Each structure stands twice: as C-alpha cells, then as structure tokens.
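Practice problem 4.
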C-alpha cells in the first residue's frame, strides 16, 4: 500500500505539472461551470422562481459539474495511451494501479478548484449556505466522493477508447442523459413513468437532494421513495458501489492495454 500511495503521488504530481504548463486545460473545470450558473440562474431562474430557484439550482450544478469533469479522466487516459506514455510507465518499477489512481487523484484536485470557483459564483448570484459548518463540509465531502466515483467510470471509458477523439465523444455521451434525467434542475413530476423511476434512483438526484439539505437550501422538486428519504446514505452507497464495480474493470483494462 505504501508503494501504491507513493507511486500514485508521483503520477498526481506529473499530471498537475501538465496542467500548470497548459492552464487552458482548466477552462472546462472553471469557465464552463460559471457559464452554467449564469445561464440557468438568469435565463431560466427568473421564470422559475427567482431567488429560491437559484438556491435550489446550485446543488444540481455542483453535482452536474463533478460528473462532467470525469471527462478529464477519460481524455487523459486516452491521451496517455495514444502517446505511448503508458508504455513508458510499464517499463518502470511502479504499481500498475498507481497510474490510474494518480489520474483520478489529480482530477479530484481539479474538482476541488471547480467547486471553489462555482461556490464563489453562486454567492455572487444570491446562493447562501444556510446550514451549519459541519453540514456544509459534509456536502462538499459528498460531492468530492461522487466526483472520485465518476472518475473511475471516466477512466474505464478512456481505456477502452481507441483514440483521444473517440474518448472526447464517448466521455460525454453517457453523461448528459444521466445528468439531465434527474432532479438536478427540474421537478420529476412531469417525467413519464420509466424516466421518473430512473431519475428517482439516479445518484445525481440523491446527491443533489442531499446537498440541498446539508446546505440548508430549498428543494423545489422534492422526490418520494426510499432513495429520496435516505438521500445522503444512498448517495454514499452508490459511490462505493460505482468504485467497487469500475475500479477493478479499469485496472484490468489498463493491464490489458499495457500488455499489448
């Protein structure tokens, strides 16, 4: 375990150096979320309740952004494969898991930056944390846990993609339907039966709802059922299940890719 953590730390540092040398990579993690906040708050917000909707909106945007940021992992893994970096790592006496763990770890730090930028933007448009400090920390912790889980999905997608171009398309292909079929931005009452059932058990719905409760924000789209009543617990279980499912798949695919 010590070797895995040491090697993962080196890969994290290598990935962050790449970001420092190419700051444009942070555009999607900072500028894009701000655009979502402003567009949804001012274009749709005034027609959907004004201030209360803006407070309702922020938890959904937080959750959507950490989900979309899994594309960093997807593109990063595909890029390393295409450029032969994985072959170089394979020649070094380092843990195989460390390469993927380093990628997901560095992208987790990028998510920290993205959440900070969005929080500042949210405060500027009227969003407030009305709960306690401990609850707010728990909300951000849940968002980062969910971001880490989504990164493992992104890692697997990147490893099965044949090129960076394919990874860019595949990385977002599954994200938008999963993100928007949820209560992140709207009420589920008008969705047809199958979509509503999916949305009620969608982790994006429960993470958004749990964060609203922890932040003390109004929930203008309350959902019913066991998952809604235990939103925080269900979200944590969903994150653990996603990591448990995709971590071994990603590692197995990495070993296959590195051994071609």
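Answer key:
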């Amino acid at each position: 375990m010590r070797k895995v953590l040491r090697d993962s730390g080196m890969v994290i540092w290598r990935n962050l150096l790449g970001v420092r040398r190419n700051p444009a990579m942070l555009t999607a993690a900072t500028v894009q979320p701000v655009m979502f906040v402003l567009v949804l708050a001012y274009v749709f917000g005034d027609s959907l309740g004004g201030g209360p909707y803006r407070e309702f909106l922020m938890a959904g945007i937080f959750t959507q952004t950490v989900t979309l940021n899994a594309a960093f992992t997807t593109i990063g893994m595909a890029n390393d494969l295409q450029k032969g970096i994985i072959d170089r790592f394979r020649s070094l006496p380092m843990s195989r898991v460390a390469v993927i763990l380093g990628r997901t770890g560095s992208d987790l730090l990028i998510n920290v930056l993205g959440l900070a930028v969005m929080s500042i933007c949210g405060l500027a448009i009227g969003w407030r944390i009305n709960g306690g400090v401990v609850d707010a920390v728990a909300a951000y912790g849940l968002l980062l846990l969910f971001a880490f889980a989504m990164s493992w999905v992104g890692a697997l997608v990147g490893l099965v993609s044949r090129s960076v171009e394919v990874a860019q398309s595949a990385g977002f292909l599954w994200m938008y339907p999963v993100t928007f079929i949820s209560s992140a931005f709207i009420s589920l009452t008008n969705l047809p039966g199958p979509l509503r059932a999916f949305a009620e058990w969608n982790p994006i719905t429960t993470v958004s709802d749990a964060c609203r409760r922890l932040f003390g924000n109004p929930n203008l789209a309350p959902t019913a059922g066991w998952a809604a009543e235990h939103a925080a617990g269900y979200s944590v279980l969903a994150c653990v299940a996603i990591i448990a499912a995709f971590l071994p798949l990603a590692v197995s695919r990495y070993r296959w890719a590195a051994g071609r």
